[in-house]
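Hi R.,

Here's the chain you asked about this morning:
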Amino acid sequence: MAGLDLMRLFNQLLLASGGDVEEAMEWMRYLQQQGHIDEGIDLEAFFDELEENSMLERAGDGSLSLSSTGERRIRRSAFEEIFSNLKKGGIGYHAVRAEGEGVEQLPERRPYQFGDDLHRIDSTASVHNVLRRTMGELDFAEEDLEVYETEHLSACATVVAIDISHSMILYGEDRITPAKKVALALTELITTKYPKDSLGVLLFGDRAERVPLSELPYIQAGPFHTNTRDGLQMARMMLARQKQPNKQIFLITDGKPSAITEGGNIYKNPFGLDMKIVTSTLEEADLCRRQGVVITTFMLATDEMLTDFVEKLTQVNRGRAYFASPYDLGEFILADYIRNRRKRVR
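And here is the predicted structure, written out as tokens:
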């Protein structure tokens, strides 16, 4: 196993363990004992190197934890893993409806048109055109000029709402780790390529709770119901404070809504689809629509009753829905984020 693969495995185990460094180390030692990691690899030297490189830090009692450098490296690793697969998969960029701030030059060119910015002229291609037309004379005409295509970048405010109810780890399938990886990758994408965008993260179980981006490696699912309405409501309120023209919620869930908050109390019903809960959740989705917030739901289940609910929520909000597995969730979300914040202009 190469060093890069070893690092990727360690990062994956860190996310699965909720950021528990020593537990991730024990898992790696166990995997080596079982023959899944080459016995010739010195894991202890690998761990020492992580500490020397300041990815891990040791507390006064000798215990190890992630450093801020380690947290940044996990974000970068998640982005590299997902985005490299995205480029190979070719999901592609699509147009958005709203034009926004910022212009990015594209490699494609087209003939100059009156009113085009002169700084977008491709001088090399234009000189080539005039020389070919005049047989060597440098006598420019408007028809010789070519300009680079551009695209406007539409500033976005995004909230990722992650379901942390018990079903996210039910039946032995880990769905919370891919959800965390997605949020980490989005963090890296936005801070490096779209710094004018904003990204917030919240968790929803019995109630919704906003979490700082630094806490992403450490979140875990728990013995909770699914209060989707509370998650949407908090996300909508977070977005209301942002100035970006485009606002969206990425809702990552694998189950039906089974709880709502009423007067400070939680009304729960884990059996079937409770119409009181469903109606309240759909009303919140409609309120999001009326405030210009698009909900994109990434559903990690294919049960017909649940997909019917998601389709209804999507119809009410006029949003989007994907039925994805945890293993390609990141590619879906990064592709959707990129394609729906861009608009090609002439």
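One quick note: The chain has three domains: 3-66, 107-148, 156-345.

Cheers,
M.
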